[in-house]
User: What shape does this take?
Amino acid sequence: MQSPSPDALDLKLLHALQVDGRAPFSRIAEILGVSDQTIARRFRKLRTTAGLRIVGMTDENLLGRQSWIVRLRCTPDVAEQLANALARRPDTSHIDLISGGTEVLCAMKPRSRQALDELLFDRLQRTPQVISVSAHCLLHTFCGGPLGWLDKTRALEPDQEAALRLPYSEPVAAPIALEGADEALLAVLRRDGRATFSELQTSTGQSESAVKRRLERLRSTGILYFKVQHDREFLGHGISAMLWLTVAPSALDAAGRKLAEHPEVRFAGATTGQANLVATVATVASPSTGELYTYLSEKVGGLDGVQAVETALTLRHVKQLTYEPSR
Assistant: This one.
C-alpha cells in the first residue's frame, strides 16, 4: 500500500534530524516555529508511515578501517537468500538486488582484513551459485556519510540548519582507538540513535555523566554521526540504479564533486577497480525509464573525463542501515 506523501513540515523534520539526529523535540520545535507536541506527533507518524529510524554511524577512516563495496554475481535462485544472509551481518549496511536479480550489491565495513577475507575467500567461494565476486575499496566519499540526500532537499532555511548543526573540534589524527566503553555505547546507538541517556546508562553499565562525556567526545571528533533511515518510496523516488563510471584519473576529483551535487545522487565515492567512481541514483518522481535516460545522457554525459558508464537497475532494497526482514 502506498504511503501518504510528506508535507513541508515532514520534510523539515526529516532534514532537521539529518542535521542532528539527537536534537531534542523541543529544540526542533523552537527552530521550526511549532509546538513540541506537533514534532513528537509527526515523529511517531513518520516511524509508522515511512519507517523512520535514526541510526548511529561511525567514520571508518577515523578508526583506521576500510569500507568496501562488494559485487556478487549469482544465479537468480540464490540471490535473495544470499542478500538476506549478508543483511544479517552487523558489518554490512546497504544491500540491494540489482541487474534483474542476478547480482547482489553489498556495502560493508569489516572490522578487520581477516573478516573480509573470510567472507570473500572462504564462505562465498564455497557457494556454488555465486558466479563471481569483486570487491572495491572505498577511497573517498563525495556524497554520503554525515551529509546525505536529505541535505539536498533544502527543506530547512540556512539559518535553521545552522542553528541545529553542532560545532566540531579541530580535525584529529587517524586512527583513533576506541575503548571498550565506547564500543558498548556505539552498539546501542547503532540500534537506536535517539536512545535516551537513561537507556544508554542502563544498556552500557556506565554512569550518566560518563555516557554524556563519551557521547560528546565521539560526536565532536566526527567519529560518530547520525543517519536518517526511511522508506525511499515515501519521498516519491522513482527508479533506482547503480552507476559504475570509468573516469580519467586527472578528472576523477572534479567529476566526483560535480556528481555529488546532482539531486538524483544519493551516494558517490571513488573506489578501486577499473570503474573508479561509483554512485547510487534515484529519479525524483517518475517510475519510467525516460527520466533516468535523460539524467544519464545529459548530466552524467556532461561530466568531463568520463570514459565509460555501466548502469544497473535496482530491483529491491534489502537493507539500508539496519535490517528489518518483517518490513
About this structure: The chain is about 35% helix and 25% strand. The chain has a mean pLDDT of 89. The longest strand covers residues 130-143. Strands lie at 53-58, 68-74, 92-98, 103-108, 130-143, 224-229, 240-247, 265-271, 277-282, 306-319.
